[in-house]
Amino acid sequence: MRISLKKTIAIAFACFGLTVQAQQVEVGLMLGASNYAGDLSNEKFLMKETHFSGALFGRYNINNRWAIKGFVGYGRVSGDDKNFNEKRNNKRNLNFYSDLYEFSVHAEYNILKNDLMSYSARPFLPYVFLGVGVFNFNPKTEFQGKTYELQPLGTEGQGTTTFNDLLKYDLTTVCFPIGIGFRQKIGDDFFIGIEGGLRFTRTNYLDDVGGFYADPQIVRAAYGDVAGLLSDRSWETFGGNQNVEGNSRSFKEKFRNDVYMMAGITLSYVIRTKGQGCPQF
Q1: Are the C-beta atoms of residues 258 and 203 closer than 8 Å to each other?
Q2: pTM here?
Q3: Where are the domains of the chain?
Q4: Beta-carbon contacts of residue 158 (< 8 Å; ≥ 6 apart)
Q5: Is pLDDT larger for residue 193 or for residue 3?
Q6: Strands 51-61 and 66-80, sheet pairing
């Protein structure tokens, strides 16, 4: 079969382009832990409130310094005033947990160059990343043997006649991941590594706490008896409501909004086009 020189060159460039592109793409997973810093952790990451997290990701290596990563992650966060002996925590007596589902895009910078084209190279790649994403959360609590979603209960009076200008917080909002990691090539096509990152969020209600106490009677009238009881749980430890309407439910001093973190071990695979080279002619 006769093929023109122009067609031969075009096929060669096309095959080369596919090979380079494939060698720049990685897919992988991360397994590790999640935690949060907010009102019900006294703005600390408490080891006892650490939970399992996992993620899938795809990385496109733009060049040997820069990469773009798509990240789909799951984690759980929780907090409890009973973790602290401070009087204000005992008086508030709140707790929560929430599952998180994150969809984000990260820009990564390799501190050391990545050898994209070599099978034999075994680079050690420390990197930093910064990104933007959205995540979904839904704070819940256990009460009298049942699980209750807190946002619909308007525990700070959101959406009641008295506080109708105070809207219920969104359960899907923006996050800004920032972190560090490193990965080591362990074979022709595999990397293993460790990554950890904070997620600065646009919400102060990851834990359903972010504003002021409402009168439990107002909450009860709008959303039912359970809502009124969960809006101020000081009665469980003091035998009666100890918090006055308008007093702060939030004790934050460091962060305006809540922060969560995800960290873990990563394993990624470099997609190549083995056996799909230029056709014989």
Answers
A1: yes
A2: 0.86
A3: 28-179+197-264
A4: 166, 167, 168, 169
A5: 193
A6: antiparallel
